[in-house]
């Protein structure tokens, strides 16, 4: 399905005669790159470009998930689905899919980047499989590995990798999700027995929404307020056994099933509560804070706030992998919708030719092609994120600054890609009409399963607010001790400065590669430098404006300060989103900078331009209000986009083929070629009928006589 | 849950002491109208206002669906769900829920408006119930009643009403959905036997996505190309028996199950095909076209095109009822999300007070309150649509012009309300975080079930394109025979003209009631007249601009003309959307014009203003580019919205309580008060702990010592 031989067959050079106008006619636009006689992308090379640094592992993972045993079965009742996914995790173990992130001495492969790259691909098989593996190895296993020390690794890590010890990651509570620091569960140290007493003091402190909690978890990494000697040292993580070998809760432990969810029903999410459950002192995962046998607390990190964020930061991989999985899931939806749009015909064009292929409609191009550009940007941005993650977690570039950058980058990208996933999958489903609503065509299942990605592992708005605060902090740092003259001078050359060092924003005309982009950008439109100037300038000005409005808060009462901040919250989140979009645009631009093949570079530059202009169009009012675009130039943005979508239209199939999906990954009948066969059969029927002379004449022609 | 007594308890006047700052503190904003000492709405009166002309029937329907037997069971496997919904239809029959639309002589009540009003409410019980009833009585039954004649009514109507004869509505085919005129199924008249031969000539002509087709349908109203005497008279509808009493297909009939869908899995959608199936001449539903025994075709409507659209128009009620059901489903989602947002607390404000109620966050107000305003607008617009529908179908105002207006109005409103449903439900689900993803809280189920509303009964984009063409037609009619001087004079006073007579656009300052709106509109903002001028002016200019760009098409070749139209398709759809938004705004404005109670009028005027400004903000770039708003005024739009959301925040609970839902309609644990109880329990626990003197001290306070 993904090779050129099949694709060439999609649009016969000579369209079959129409049932309405036997004379036939030309389609309204070139349908494929061959027809258009235009530069073409090198599909296989683009696949490697998209799969990025860990392409090899991704290919491995894609081979593995060709096995139907790993696929989602639509409509499978929840209990069976849960057991099936548990079995699939065992298949992963057998195929060495569970060990990439862990140290070699426990059977691991010590390859963090590859681990996440491979893990993301599981979304193509069944997102429940992806997320349940994430719970077992990315959260439960990672908590032991990242927050524990060697004694814990020796005790549990091999069993975790082998799935001998399935576990839950018990952080979130019914009463506190985003605000982890305020969880109610307590772990009080008892020096007499050298035990921690894990306790749930009220209903809101029940642990909730935990994968593996309802059925399969034998233990959990439980986050609780560590109390020793009458002092609360804040949230720490404890290893707590949950169930005996028969699956019964151990004494003091209780729970509930979360029941049916909007998606991901292959995972047994549930609630847990603890009634003075005692665990040995050993079970405190003590990498960042420890309690001596006499109850003395020690930590290398003296600031409670920094310690807390360091512990949370050690678990950043969840966000990194959701960014990638959302990107891959979105790609699948676009593959399905664009392949169908290239085959499905509906309505004749009024030009007397054949019925029109959906993707030839202006509206259809407009609704899908900018989303394709956006998805490409996400691939490049995710690979950058993955590289940064691997740098930090391999220890190669593990500094506090790098960690902070990694966390900010993940917090900026995960919200954008997960929201884009939902809106793109929804647009794809609508673009496929009624067949898009059938489970067999996968789009509805993808939407249902990926829905929760926007609120778990950090609610998207909360994450963006974190990014916004970081941007404000970086901005303020510029002016520490600055006098009025310096501020004024800064304001004057604002657009040219490198303001946001840490958060990933490149400096103008410096780190962003623009090799060849001037020549290849849309000729009358906004070239790469101008796109970058507009996108980066918006982030900078929004942050500066918000900082200005927040200034009175410094001298206000706490309540007034909170009110001032609250009045700017929505815009701060919007500034953070603008920052994330800029990062994606920069990653796209850098990502194609090394492309040697002329045709590929040309088409991908158009696609990058489409992404840039799509972002500018989305925020056009802002650019006008802030005098960054004249009304005339602003009006031309939409026209440039129209022109770009027309140019890219013949390349649409190449561009989704370059995702490199095999039929076993796609599995949607409407993207299998069946639609084309049906349309061909219908046209042949009408052609034969017309040739036979037996075709009924239309009433209209009767009246003309 | 819906009465003031319960509501008063939501925000204790004195917040309990915080666990962090035992001194407590004031919330950042007034939470309820009582606290704010502001005008309040008369909740019960607003409920009646929202329920509109057929409020009585709606109350009846809401009483009926308090019966748990009619409720959706989350996670119920598809086969059981299908049987359950069939049983629910029988319950409706027993409770006279199936007869409102039909003539009294067949057991009906002859009340079209009431029928749809009652039917829409079923969405609260289970959207599958709503849609399966729609298939049986709104589509299958309506086809017999609207397209057939007395002989058909005598033969089948009572059995249809009583569900003795469950049926499918077989219009859509796998190969043709939106383009009904091009369906492939044929009905060829055989004068020798006086029968029609129903036949499926190729795979693409299989009937598809038909409710009742997979299991329960005993017959179908089948749309097919009517061929007699070698002439194709276009699409007509035929009554075709499908199954015997044991449920087996009759000879020549075959089919398939559509399987699992993205939602609505209580309905047995399926495919049907016909192999030279013979039905008596009697079975042609012959209201608009007939075939004599010798095969002679006759029709009162000579134009094949007009005949086709008349037949389709007779089935407009599907769109009318989807507009209402989407509106009611959206209201439920907003009730749940806003009630939860009024109880759930997360993060302390930094002001040293208690944890903050979600709805006190600026972002949370911004994301939900404009959607509440939009939903109110939809209620008023739907009631206007329903009145027009009742006028036409009761015969009181059944003229071709009224029918055309009705169809245009339905085609404009259904896309907006169904899309708004999906985006609002999604925003509501995200605003509820992880608990929003649990099926028990209903938001995910609503999204899944309502998803297909945007593409069935007319794909939303296709419907809007129809509206756009109507707008272009009305526009062109102004200038028939106009000379250049007239055109120029028109252009000059464009903003003041009543251009679109038929399509529902009111004339400035004339039909739109603005009683009291000047005084009550946001004082510094855009008052009602200005909102109307901006919204209406945009529709007018967009249509005029598109018409101008399409002018060359008149003299172009067919292929070129098609290309010119295609280049403007996306914008024409956008113009139609703008028109629909204007209609909603006008309906809202008229809808509150008669309100006597001062407080109610004040609050609903703010809400109408919020809706208007929300629309203007959405299209701000257009207003700037087209010189309708200066950059300065445009910049103030967002500030006005911020101010309005702050003003409306204390009224949010009143406004969703005014939907009039009972606990049996809501059924979401997070909107039951359980969340408030949990938060109260947690605060009491911390307060008692603090009072006991046993509370652990925070590490931070330790360091200060």
Q: Number of helical segments of chain A?
A: 27
| Shape category of chain A | globular
Largest sheet properties of chain A: 6 strands, mixed
- What is the CATH class designation of the domain at 318-480 and 520-690 in chain A? Mainly Alpha
Average pLDDT of chain A, rounded to a whole number, is 89
Largest interface: A-B, 114 and 114 residues
| Low-confidence sequence ranges of chain A | 1-28, 491-505, 507-519
* Oligomeric nature of the chains: homodimer
Give the CATH topology of the domain at 318-480 and 520-690 in chain A.
Answer: Butyryl-CoA Dehydrogenase, subunit A, domain 3
CATH architecture of the domain at 318-480 and 520-690 in chain A: Up-down Bundle
| Helical percentage of chain A | 40-55%
Strand content range of chain A: 5-15%
Structural class of chain A: alpha+beta
Q: What is the CATH H-level superfamily of the domain at 318-480 and 520-690 in chain A?
A: Butyryl-CoA Dehydrogenase, subunit A, domain 3
Number of strands of chain A: 14
- Overall radius of gyration of chain A: 28 Å
Distance between the termini of chain A: 49 Å
